[in-house]
Each structure stands twice: as structure tokens, then as C-alpha cells.
What does this fold into?
Amino acid sequence: MDATANPVAMRTEPVRDDALLRATRRRALLSRLLAHGALILGVLIVAFPIYMTLVGSTHDAGTIGRGDVPLLPGAHTVENYATAWNEGGGRSHTTPASTMLVNSLIMAVAIALGKIAISILSAYAVVFFSFPGRMLAFWAIFITLMLPVEVRIIPTFQVIVDLNLGNTWPGLVIPLIASATATLLFRQFFLTIPDEFVEAAKIDGAGPARFLKDVVLPLSLTNIAALFVILFIYGWNQYLWPLLIINDRSMETIVVGLSKMIGRGDAQNEWNTIMATAVLALLPPVLVVALMQRWFVRGLTETEK
Amino acid sequence: MQRKVIFRGRLLPVALLLPQLAITFVFFFWPAGRAIYQSLLREDAFGLSQEFVGLENFQDVLSDPNWVNAALNSVVFSGCVAGLALGLALFLAVQADKSLRGVTVYRSLLIWPYAVAPAVSAVLWLFLFQPQVGMIGRWLNAAGFAWDYRLNGTHAMILIVIAAAWKQIAYNFIFFLAGLQSIPASVLEAAAIDGARPARRFWSIIFPLLSPTTFFLLIVNLTYAFFETFGIIHALTSGGPGQATETLIYKVYVDGVQNLNLGLSSAQSVILMVLVIALTAFQFRAVEKKVHY
It folds into this structure.
């Protein structure tokens, strides 16, 4: 509307506009406040079980056993963690947490590095070479996506028994390091490396091994870091496989060991030691996610493509 | 599929592929084949002789009321876990998407449960819901609600659903937030100018535009609830009380590892393999859709 043609509108409109603006601003502010409120509530609910576990790990077994866990930390922190670390706990007196943490660390790092190593090698072979059976090999790796451990428990266990690998590190780690996802990811990435790089390397007389070491690996570092975060967590959190393969207590991993400590979940459990062990069991992977968040989010979204 | 410039050589690539292929054959194809083979055999009670029985094991499995019970439990469990984890994550992601300031802080505070092992998550929630020791368990009992997950199957199911869904919220949140942030603001502004209220904007614009993400996450969540939650059930309920929380995966474990019934366990494994293949195929279709979108 032409404002000069209607002097009345000219006088009234700024006033109405102002009120509308204020109302809109107020509504926007209210909606933002509600959003923040909901998010803070969500964060608190998500964090609550961890908080109570931390609190539980600072009281004595008697306080917890009577059902009087306070909302604030107690004074038994040092002794609870010392017991968990040195002796282990629960009435079945499991392995000390220090031993289980080392075992979990070996397992997680071996699985993560193993998966990354063999996936880089196979993706490199599939992308940078042409040979008979290339696609067949690729599909053979790809199809393992459809055969998780959980659906072939017994026969895989039988293979381990036949190979005499029960209760050994190779038996625990090797079956878990085949990785279709990581191979697919590296293949995808290798395909984006410009042909000129390969040509230049060839002209300079670099062979495939040299090209892998000096060009492809340095270019893949971010992908490797992102994948390592995801695979470390995957390895650390393994449950069914170590449960089946390991019955030597000195090789117990902390996740399986923790679940053995709670037994049937009785009130008489040494909950203080159990909670201290639970904190120790979740701390390493949570720290990895917290400290390497950028790579973690990247790894998570990349592996699903 | 193939680069233009490549290295020559036949032995080297095969050598590079060898470790991966060897593991794949020894620990994936050989056991999978063995599962299929054993699913067609039946052992006598002493494990001395085997007899070919065709598809009888499958008939036995499918007509076993315990297996049907486990299948129903799996459906209820996965449905509840996926529903709860997706619903909460979507709600939180929509809230986080509103206030662009602080999004990264909230994301950091919400994503770390992803790193907690399922069995550890079970222990954390047990400490809250244990009827005599746990804070919430005691509140419930004090309030006159006879809460005991060790006696009541529904309670046990609720507990494992909570422990499983809690861990998955982080993952869903990351993907929902990315999906929400890729919806162009101009579309929402246009709707707002047309007078669409926030609720209307959500259901008519955001939710449909988000559906590829939702579908993809639904498949991922169902797969997670089906196959990766063994630790939660094993640590918390061992499938009990009775068989109220026995899922298909847990039953394979019980029949194979504890009852040593190879034929029946293998037949169940084969059925599960078919299920995984179907889920994986769905997942790839979901990813394709995501790319188009």
C-alpha cells in the first residue's frame, strides 16, 4: 500500500508493528528458554545413572546395602578404588581391575589396529590393482557384514576349539578383526585420490609399497584417526566373544568381569567395589569419545555411508 | 568402481588381500557353512552319532513355544528400544536445533553414553533399579508399587529396555541433529510467513523432510536392539524371570552353549542370518535414500 496516500495508516502502523515485534520476540525467547530447559533436563537424565555410580563408588558397602545411598559423595573413595584396583570384588572375588583394564586395553587396541591394518591393505589391493578375482574378493569381504558373531556363535566357537585357540589372545582378537565397514570406507577414500598422484609416483619410479607408505597413508591419517576412535570403543565393549573364549581369570576383560561381579544382583553384593569397577570400566572409552569428539562424530557418520 | 591408473602385478594384491580373506573364510564363511550343515543334522543324546534330518530342526524350532516366545520378546524389546531411543533423541535434537548457540555444548554432554558398553549400562541402571539397594527401586517400593525385576517379567523387560535405549539416544541425536540442520531455513521461514505454527511446521515440513534419516535410524536401532544387546540381558536378567526377557540371540546362546543342542541352535542361527541379511538390505536402501535426499 502506498503510505503517502493514507496518512492514518502511516501514524498507526509503527505502533502496531512495535507491539507485534515485542510479542514475537517474547515468544521466541520463551521458546528458546523452553528448548534450553528441555535440553538441560535431557542432559541431567542421561547423566544421572553415571552420577549415582560415581556416588556409589564413594560410600561403604554397608551404607549401600541398607539402601541408604545419599545423593552426595561419601568418604570411602580411596579405599573402594584401591580394593577394586588391587583385589577385585564381589563375593566371587574376581580378577583385580588393574589386570582387567590392561586386558581390555590390549584387546581394544589390537582389534582397532588390526582392523585398520588389514582393511587398508585389502582396500589398497582392490583399488590400485587389477587382477582376476578382484570383485569376488571385494564381495567376499562385503558379505561379512551380514554375519555378525551373534548369529554364528557355536560354529565359530567350534573353529576356535579345533584350532586350539581358546583362552589365547589370537583366539580373542583375530576373529574380530575382519572388517567390511573399514574396508568399504578406505576403498571409498582411495577412489578419491587423483590419478595424477599415481602417475607422478610411477614417473618418479616409486612402486606400490612406496606409494602406499609415502602418499596414501599420510593422506588417510584423518580417516584412520576417526576410525580408530570408533573401533577402539567397539573393541573395548566386546562382550559375547570374550565371554565364550576366555575362562582364564588372568585374561578376563573388565566389561565381562564387571558383569560377573554383580552375580544375581543381590543387595549383599559389595556394591561399593562394583561401582568403582564400573567407573573404571567406562572411563577409558568415554574419555576417548570426549577428547576426540571431532573424530568420533566424523567416524560415526562416515562408517554408516 | 575402478581407477584408470593402476599398478601392475598379480601376486602383490593377492598377498595384500590374504590376511582379510583368510580371516573371512576361517571365521565367517566356514562357521556359517557349518551352521547351515549342522542345522540339517541331529545328534543323539551322547553326541556319538549324527543323522541327517532335513528341515526337521527348523520345524522343531518354529513350532517350539519357547522360540515363539523369544521371537515375541525380541519384537517387543526392539520395538520399545527403537521407539524410546528415537523419540527422545528426536525431541532433544529439535530442541537443540532451535538454539544455535550452545548446540555443540549440548551435543558434547549428550553423546558420551555411546561409549559405554551395553553390559556396563546394565550395571549402571541396575544400581538405580535394584529393589533393595537402588534409589529408584526403593522409591517405587516405598510408594506402594511392588517393583522387583527379578520376580516380575514386565519389570525385567522395562529395565532392559531402559538400559538399552539410554545408550542409543546419543547416536540417534547426532544423526537427527545433522538431518535437522540440513533442512533449509528458507522453507521453514516461508511456512512461518504463511502462518504455520511451530507444531504444524514440525509435522508438515520437518518430519517429512527428516523421514529418510528416521527410516535409516529405525533400521540401525532395530539391528542394535536385536544383536548388540546380548550383554545387557546376560548381565541383568539371564533371560528371566522365567523366559520373560529371553530374546532370539539369547536363546541361541542358551541352546548352544548351555544346553549343547547343536542342531537346534544352528537352525536358529540360520534363521537369524536370514533376518540379518534382510535388515542389511533394508539398511542399504535407507542409505541410498539418504543420499538422494
Remarks:
- Chain B has twelve helices and two strands.
- Chain B has a mean pLDDT of 84.
- The beta strands of chain B are 41-43, 50-52.
- The first strand of chain B starts at residue 41 and ends at 43.
